[in-house]
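I wish you would study the pair of lines that follows with an eye to the fold:

===
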Amino acid sequence: MINKEKKRMRFFRVNLAAAFALACDTICVGTMHISMIESKLVYYSLGIIDEKLTVSDEKWLFDYGIDGTIHLPGTDKFLGIDDQGGFILVTQPHAGFLLLASPDSNCRSTLVYDGEAFFRLNNDNLISHAQDDRGVQILVTFEDIIQRC
């Protein structure tokens, strides 16, 4: 019974996000996951914990905007970068994100920020834009759930 209710609520959230996206300047609504660590193909969902982008057990929805922003549906928060290069939630739109469609797309795109497609997965499972020796190099994939690609 609980799983049925969770599925119903997830379906409602997806439909609500899709309706909102179509009414605004959102290009697509989707989930994000780590698709590669170093040179190994993987699949680790990404979400928000304590206002930071991190590996998550659940799939989270994100809106990609026509202005190069990533918005967290149902909030007034956007994905941004802190002083150390970590991806965090911020209240002002933070442009600079780009989705590059894969040749074998299936409505999947590589997330790029400020011209850089490779990010870092730090030891605390947080995602960083910093190009230093902390953590391992990763690719992040955005998967459009409305599939208008």
Q: What stands out?
A: Helices lie at 2-23. The radius of gyration is 15 Å. The domain at 2-144 is CATH 2.80.10.50 (Trefoil (Acidic Fibroblast Growth Factor, subunit A)).
